[in-house]
Every structure is written in C-alpha cells, then in structure tokens.
Design a protein that fits this description.
heterotrimer; B: 13% strand; C: Histone, subunit A; two-stranded antiparallel ribbon; flat
Chain lengths: 478, 478, 97
C-alpha cells in the first residue's frame, strides 16, 4: 500500500533588531542572566508595551519576500496561558489579522520547482528561558528563569501542509533560512535557537482526498534533525495505519539521542488561549507607500541570483551553491565586475577559497581576502607569471594577510620560470639522478613520466612553467 | 482661624508667595491631622515618616509645601505599592510611574500611599485586604471606592490633594461620597505607565481635590503624551488657566435614564436644586435620553473583568510579591493566587476568564464591544445638541460599612451613573452639590473628549454660585 | 445555571485555588451576573462594529534604539527566591517545550 505524506512547517525566527519588540532593552546573546530586562519584559505591575518599528518592517519585508498579501489593518492579540517563562502569563501575538497572508516559497524537487504555500506571517514576542537543575525537565529539584530573551521579536511563519517528503522539508527550511539571512532579518542559526521549527505530519493512502490525522513534532534543533525526525515519524505513522490502527492527534517530541519521536500526551493540557485584542496597543495601518518603500529595499534573493548565475554560464550546481551563500555571492558579484570570467571565479571560490574558509571556520567577510586581491591573482596566472599550482599555494596567506599577490610573489621569489635553458638544465639533472626511472619510462611505464615531471618541479621549487616542463621533458626523453 | 490643612492648594500657594505662611507650617498641619485622625479614618496604607516629609520641603519650590497623597496602585520608586492586596503586600516599586516622575520633577511632596479596594475593584474601599477606610463625614459609612483613601485624605486634610484612578467611577464616586472634587480625564490624556492595570481600555489616573481650581491645576501637571504608553495621545499637556465660570447660555443635558427609579429621593432633591442653580446662572437645562445607557453595567462588567483577568495573570509568585508553597511551579502558582487574592478580585477574575473562554467570546466579549460602540454613539449624538451632560455621581448616599458587601450585583448596579463615561472614553468631573444629614452628594458633569477646560468652567461656575466646596467634615468636634 | 464542573474549569484556566465553599459561592454569584449580562441579547447588534479602542489612534511605533534598563539587582529586588542572577522556582513537571 502506497502512502502520501503531508507536512506543514511552522518556523519561529528571532529578528535581528537591536532592541526588543515591546521595550527598548537590548537584544544580545550570552549576557549574564536578567541583565537585559526592564519593567515591560519582566512583566512588572504597571508596565506597558510599545511596538518596535524595525520589527514591523522586518515582518512586512519578509512577508513580501514570501509573496504574501499584506493585511492593511493588522492588530495584536493576547494569547493567555500560564508558564513561568512567560512574565505576564500572556504572550502578545497576532491572531486573526497577521501582517502577511497567503504567500509561497518555491523549492527544487525531483519533479521540478514546487510551490509551498505560506498561510501566514506574524509578529510576536519571545519568552524567557527556563533552566532546570540537572539539565532535564523531569526529575529536577528547582528551575531557574532568565528573562533576557523575554520580548525578543519573533516572526512566526506557517506553511500549508504542501510538503510531501522529508527532503522537501529540508529544502523548504534551507530556502527559508536563506531568504531570512539574505533579507538581514534573522541569522538563521538553528543550533543557537535563533531559528526554530516545528512540523505537522500526516499520512494518507495514495489517492485518498482526505488528509490523515496529524501529529505535531517539536524539539527539532538542526537541519539534520529535520530529515531524520520526519523520516522516523512518517514511518511510525505508516506502521500504525498499515496495521489497521489510528494515528492519535498529539504533540510528539523528537528524541535526538535515541533517534525517535516520543508522545507528549498527558504532559500537556488542552489550551484555551482566550485570545482578545491587545488593549495596550493600537492597530497597525499599513499604508501602500510604506509597503512600496520596503519592497524596493528587498535585495536580490537566492532564486533570482540562481537564474542570473546560470545565465552567466555557471552550471546549475555551481549556481545553486553560490546563490545560497550570501557573503560568497556578494564577493562573486563584485569580482565579476572587475574580471570578466565568472566560471573561473566561481570555480576558485567554490573549491579552493571555500576549503580555506572551512578550515578557518570563517565567512569570507571575516577574512582579509578581497575581490581586488582575487582579480590580481587571476591576472598573474593569465599573464603566466605564476602557475595555478603556485597560486593555490599562496592563497592561504592572501586570505589571512590580505597582501597584494604581486608583491607576495616577488617577495618569495615565486615568479614562474619560463627560461628554457634553465628548465633544460633542471631536466638534465633530474634525468641523470633518476636513470632507473628513465629506463622504466622507456620500457612503457607511463606513470614514470609524471614522476619525472614532479622531480623537475621539485627541483625548481614549483616555479617552472609546467607546460614547458612537459614539452621539454618529452623532447629530452625522445 | 482656618487650619492650613483645610485650605486649597491655590490658596496656600498664594499665602506662600506673599510670605504669609511658612511651608513647614503647611506640611506640619497635615501631619498633625494625620496624627489626630488617621487611626479613625485609616486612609493610608503607608505614610512616609515625618522627618522625610519635612526634609523634602525646598524653599524655592512651592509645590514641595503642598502634601499630596497617592493611591497605592501607582508605583513610586522605593516605596511599597500593595494595591491593597496580600499578593503585593511586600512589593517595593523598582521604578516610578510616569505621573509620579512628572510630580517629582516639580518637587511635589508625597506624604503617603492611600487605601483602595483591592486592585481598584470595588466601590467602597471595603475590599482592601488590610482594612476599610472610613468616611470622614460619618465614620460608620464608607468613603466610596475604589479611591476611598485618596478622597478621604483630601476631605479631612491629611493631604491637600491626591491622585486616584478611575475605571468605572473610582475617582468620581469616592469624591462624591467625601464631598470633594474628582476628575476622570479623557482616556489617553494621562499616562497609565506605572499604574497597576485593572482594565486597560478603561483606566485613567486623575486628580482628587478640594475645589475645581485645584483640580485643573493638578491635572495640568499630570497630563501629556508619554512615549512609554502606546494608548497615550500625542497632544500637548493641558495648560492651566484659572477658570472664569461663565455658564451663561450653556446648554446642559440632564440624562433621563440616570434620574430613574433607583435614585434616592434626597439625591434627586439635590439634583433638582443643582438644575435650578444652573438655570439661575443663565444656563439652559433640558432632559436628554441616552437609550443604550441601561446596558452599561453588563457591558462594563464583561469588558473590565475580561481585561482584568488577563492583567492580573502576572501575579504568580515567580518574580515578585507573595509566593505560597508548592511542590511544583504550577502548584505554587495556584496556591499563591488562591491565598493572595481577595474574594472580589477572585470573583472578577473568574467572570473575566469565563467571558473570554472558548465558546463564550462572541456571546459576551464581542457583544459587549458592540454595545460599547452604541453607548459611545449615544454620547456623541447628545453632545451635538448639548455642551455638557449632567447626572448624579451616585444614585445613593454613602452607605454604612458592611451594608452592601454581601451582594455583588447590587454593588455593581450602583455604578450606573459613572460607568458609561469610561466606556465612551469621555471626561467627567464630580463636584459637591449638596448635603443630606451632613452626608455629601455629588453632581457629575460630563463632556465630549478633550473638553476638560469646559468642564472646569462649568463646575467652577457652579462652585461660585454655591459654597458646598467650602464645607469640611468635623470628626469628634475638633 | 453554571455547573460546578464549569467553575472548576475556569479555576484551572485562571490558576486560582478555591475552597469548596468559595467555589459554590462563586458559582451562584457568577450565575447572577451572567444572567444579568444576558440582557445584552435584547438588542440585535449584528450590524454594529465592535469598539476595540475609544480613540482613533494607530501606528504608535518606537525607533529601534536600545536604552538603559534595570540592573540585575533591581530586576531581582522583589524576587521571592533568587540565585546567581536567576529567579528560582519550584520544579516544572512535564509541560511546554
């Protein structure tokens, strides 16, 4: 029996504003507990919320980038429930008039491009953080509460259950993260908690119109977890249904350690949030001029970059890698402006430069490497001053020190040797010192040739023009 | 020789500027009043020690010689703010309410925090968790509520003036019961930041004073835009100018529905007399109907308790206030709130939670919001024909302690005159208009939004034609 | 007539611990008030818009500028229990993630 899967994703993104959404406390990661709080985000008696303009702009901008309609009249609601990390015991959120509605995000699937519909985008406040002594929620003696995170702005993005597989879910999450990063509204670091996701999953028999009973999956803390958790849950549900059982609608928790989902049933109560419009805030009237102005400030997003890079001659694979890396694509664009060989630049960036960045655990903007340096390096190769090999050798130093490649090459005496008589004398020496290998080559062992080339390069400290070495060595061996 | 504590602020300011009296003498006369009568009246929950009060006097700051009392639901940094509740009996305010900031900037001398019905919920100050305040005119009777302490303090001269808060009549009704003047300003003209919220869309802070001139003067200090309060209007503060009281040709509407069956005959007699006084001064008084006003009480009790149930959720024993025992955080919250809240507060939280709960939101909360519109509209229409509207402030005379406390619904119904004003957001002032067996009766004058100046003019005109505002209570024949 | 179960349900939502006597008293009193509030059904309000705010204000926004806030000491000044800068509370059992 074949089954189809429906997955909906709910993402919470912490916004990169400098202050919180309803008060002016700074937004900072890692500060000592309860040092970034005020009467408002601490829920003291008499405190009142005031809405952060930039948080609203980030929300509108994101909604626009996700092709949403914007609610011209948008209000906040109180979501009432009790929990120690919620200082007012209500969360200021949005209910029936969220900022963005009915948008979509496109992903690449085996069957081509697919649209995942976005139901809503809304703004709300984050809660404080609970820490349990013993590190686990059950069996702890006391709990500690830190309200630094209380009232940090969150963007909630809810999709329709259009996602059909764990791979698609990962694509969706990845594309969403890229958009948020490219817009500059969120840094998308799931491991740090600045982007969180929950999934709704249901299965149904192939051909069935009606969606199956869904479970809600929480505690997915990384991109890898997403796929694994979804695969597990889908299999679990198929298992239940194929044995004639029924999936219970419940919340389940992804247990990373044991790689399974666990039921939270009985541990949670049915919530009656008693939503009502927030009387301490006034409505948002989002005018056309505001929307147009924010729209015009949206930078080129990954999808657009992807198409443009393909047109520049990059392969789809290259284009995709580059288009989804904000810093690298900006670097690429600047370099292409100065040096008209996109393919060559892309190759360098995606292979050698990327390796150096990974080794240093840095992004390109954190290094001293610039487009100008890149171009100077490529020019040196084009002019035959150095070989590609030498260029690769000096790349790490260029990245760390940001010096002029030309100067560096001169300093280190790395200028390529094209003097034929010099090369000939080196070849001479190598042939003399490696008579045995020469014999092997003459007997038919091709590999020996490469060894001899290597020896010449070694003798000339890599500076001999490899093409010339090849030619001259062939001649010398007859 | 009139005791200084019985004079008005503007009279005292005149004496100070003419150097006919020393600031210390004024402050001492209030302190003496407290020493003599506070044990019988019990207007305060917290009195600053005499030395601090005296030391706060500054020779070049006349307002520092005019002691003011503050209702204990407004935060004064470093002072207790108990809201007359066990749940906050140990709470020390870590910040100043905006109105207090404004007073401090002008060197006002805060003499103490006054008693109230717990969390401002009540009409008699009998709901204070600590003790009831007594009416200085008859110690067996209530001073009204919820700002009973503030009103009594002014009447008996513990302070020259005071601040109260009004959600459904809590400034006006105690002002009426204590024979003093009380203003509920237009919603949004006085900041609520630092006022412990009862019903966010209805609460306003306002002055309680001996006469209209003092009322206008104090209002000028507390009004004005506050960026910390999103519901505060972006308008300049009221600028004080001594009222002239010319009411010739003024069109005054007597609200028909507030002169009905439930009005005590002696109150009605005072109203008739007041109408005559207006007419003798050249005003025109006609009856006007506000057809939906009879629905004010259920409308108010749905909206106010709904908002209150949410505003009071923050009192949970986590960050401040009372913390009861509990094996878990949840148990601790249940017990804290069970022990910390008094019966009236619990009753209103229950009611408010109910009207917001699933299945009842449309029938109650939403419906009440629609009635609010109808009631506000009734006022708008009436103000097209009339400059101001009048009614009794309370349909009944100050009642004896214990008389009404066991019948909540009856207590709620006696707020019928004051409640519609908060629902519509308009300003209203209560001034003394007569005495029945030495018990004060109050006249309520209502105006359209932002008509405070007009209210001051009309009430001043009435004052000039009468001498009710000059009468002072005598306790035990002093 | 409000049932005891309904009252218990509201208690739970409102995190109020009541005694049996209190519960019964509130049941009666709430019932009186709710019956009285049902008067609102007397008028058809289908075409009346709800009045969420008394005054027509909108778009009250604050610039994204961080400001001075409370010190850790001030934040904890009324804490019933604190340790190392944190608020300390009894343990949570199960509940939200």
């Amino acid at each position: 029996m074949d089954y189809e899967v429906n997955i909906g994703m709910e993402i919470h993104a912490e916004l990169l504003t400098r202050s919180k959404v309803f008060c002016s406390c700074p937004v900072q990661f890692g500060a000592p507990p309860n040092t970034l709080v005020c009467p408002v985000c601490l829920g003291l008696p008499g405190a009142l919320p005031v809405l952060n303009k930039r948080a609203v702009e980030f929300a509108i901008t994101t909604a626009l980038a996700l092709n949403c309609g914007i609610n011209r009249h948008s209000i906040f609601h109180r979501k009432n429930y009790y929990y120690p990390d919620l200082p007012k015991n209500y969360q200021i959120s949005q209910y029936d008039s969220p900022i963005g509605i009915q948008g979509y995000l496109e992903i690449e699937t085996e069957g081509g491009r697919k649209r995942i519909r976005i139901r809503r985008v809304h703004l709300e406040e984050d809660t404080g953080k609970l820490i349990h002594s013993g590190g686990r929620i059950t069996g702890s003696d006391i709990s500690f509460v830190d309200f630094n995170r209380s009232s940090v702005p969150l963007l909630e993005i809810v999709s329709e259950p259009d996602i059909s597989s764990p791979e698609e879910a990962k694509e969706y999450l990845s594309n969403m993260r890229d958009i948020l990063v490219f817009l500059g509204v969120c840094d998308g670091k799931m491991e740090e908690g600045s982007m969180r996701c929950e999934a709704n999953i249901s299965v149904r028999r192939k051909g069935s119109e009606k969606l199956g009973t869904k479970t809600e999956l929480k505690n997915i803390n990384s991109f890898r977890s997403v796929e694994r958790a979804l695969i597990y849950e889908i299999n679990r549900q198929i298992d239940v249904v194929s044995r004639g059982g029924e999936v219970i609608q419940e919340t389940r928790h992804w247990d990373e350690k044991n790689e399974r989902t666990v039921s939270m049933r009985g541990k949670e109560e049915a919530h009656d949030y008693r939503y009502f419009p927030e009387p301490d805030l006034v409505p948002l009237e989002i005018k056309d001029e505001w929307i147009e102005s924010l729209k015009s400030q949206i930078p080129e997003l990954p999808d657009e970059k992807y198409e443009r890079y393909k047109k520049l001659g990059l392969t789809p694979y290259e284009a995709k890698l580059l288009a989804h890396d904000l810093e690298l694509s900006v670097f690429f664009d600047r370099t292409v402006d100065l040096y008209n060989n996109p393919k060559n630049i892309a190759n360098w960036l995606l292979v050698d430069v990327t390796k150096e960045l990974k080794d240093r655990n840095k992004v390109i903007t954190e290094t001293s490497f610039t487009p100008e340096i890149m171009v100077e390096l490529l020019d040196l190769i084009d002019q035959g001053v150095i070989s590609g090999r030498i260029a690769k050798d000096i790349l790490p130093e260029l990245i760390d020190r940001g010096v002029s490649p030309k100067k560096l090459v001169e300093e280190k005496g790395l200028i390529q040797i094209t003097d034929i008589s010099f090369i000939l004398s080196a070849i001479d020496q190598v042939l003399r010192e490696n008579a045995g290998v020469v014999e092997e080559y003459k007997k038919g062992k091709e590999k020996s040739f490469m060894f001899l080339v290597g020896q010449v390069m070694k003798l000339t400290r890599g500076r001999a023009n490899p093409k010339l070495v090849n030619e001259l060595l062939k001649k010398a061996l007859g | 020789m009139t005791n200084l504590a019985d004079l008005t602020a503007h009279e005292l300011l005149g004496l100070i500027s003419r150097k006919e009296v020393s600031p210390v003498d004024i402050v001492n006369s209030c302190i003496n009043r407290i020493e003599m009568y506070e044990s019988q009246v019990k207007a305060f929950l917290n009195i600053r020690d005499a030395e601090t009060i005296i030391n706060s006097i500054r020779e070049d700051e006349p307002y520092s010689a005019i002691p003011i009392a503050i209702k204990d639901n407004m935060l004064v940094k470093g002072q207790p703010a108990t809201c007359a509740s066990k749940i906050l009996s140990n709470f020390i305010a870590p910040y100043n309410a905006t109105v207090i900031k404004k007073l401090i900037q002008n060197s006002f001398n805060i003499i103490g925090k006054t008693n109230l019905d717990e969390f401002a919920m009540g009409s008699s100050t009998e709901n204070s968790a600590f003790y009831p305040t007594r009416n200085p005119w008859d110690l067996e009777r209530v001073p009204g509520g919820s700002s009973g302490g503030s009103a009594a303090s002014v009447a008996i001269g513990f302070s020259i003036w005071s601040l109260g808060s009004d959600t459904g009549g809590s400034i006006r009704q105690p002002a009426s019961f204590c024979g003093v003047v009380g203003l509920k300003p237009t919603y949004g003209t006085v900041s609520r930041y630092g006022l412990v919220a009862f019903a966010s869309s209805l609460d306003q802070i306002g002055p309680i004073t001996k006469d209209v001139t003092d009322c206008a003067l104090l209002y000028s200090f507390i009004s004005g835009y506050d960026p910390n309060d999103s519901t505060s209007l972006n308008m300049p503060p009221y600028k004080f100018s001594p009222p002239k009281g010319d009411i010739k040709g003024l069109k005054i509407g007597l609200v028909k529905e507030l002169m009905g069956e439930g009005v005590d005959p002696s109150v009605r007699a005072c109203m008739d007399n007041s109408i005559k006084i207006f007419e003798d001064s050249g005003a025109i008084v006609e009856e006007v109907s506000l057809p939906h006003i009879e629905y004010s009480v259920p409308t108010y009790y749905i909206l106010a308790t709904a908002e209150a149930s949410s505003n009071l959720a923050r009192f949970d024993g986590v960050r401040y206030g009372l913390r009861a025992n509990g094996k878990t955080a949840e148990e601790m919250m249940f017990n804290t709130r069970g022990e910390g809240f008094g019966p009236e507060v619990k009753r209103r939280i229950m009611l408010g939670t109910y009207v917001l709960s699933a299945g009842y939101y449309e029938a109650f909360y939403l419906k009440a919001l629609k009635f609010r519109n109808l009631i506000a509209d009734d006022f708008k229409k009436a103000f097209e024909r009339f400059d101001v509207l009048i009614s009794p402030t309370s349909p009944i005379l100050p009642f004896k302690l214990g008389e009404k406390i066991s019948n909540p619904l009856e207590m709620y119904l006696s707020d019928i005159c004051t409640i519609p004003v908060n629902l519509a957001g308009i300003p209203a002032i209560s001034i003394p208009c007569g005495f029945i067996n030495n018990l004060p009766v109050g006249l309520q004058i209502m105006g359209p939004t932002f008509s405070e100046s007009k209210l001051f003019e009309v009430s001043y005109g009435f004052e000039q034609a009468t001498s009710f505002h000059k009468k002072r209570p005598q306790i035990g024949g002093s | 007539m409000l049932s005891i179960e309904e009252v218990i349900h509201i208690e739970r939502l409102a995190r109020l611990r009541l005694t049996d006597d209190e519960r019964e008293m509130y049941r009666k009193q709430l019932n009186d008030v709710l019956n009285y509030a049902a008067r609102l059904d007397e008028i058809d309000t289908t075409s009346v818009p709800p009045m969420y705010h008394v005054l027509p204000v909108s778009n009250v926004l604050r610039e994204d500028i961080p400001q001075e806030n409370l010190t850790q000491e001030e934040a904890l000044s009324n804490a019933p229990s604190e340790d190392g800068g944190f608020f300390v509370i009894p343990p949570i059992l199960g509940g939200e993630g």
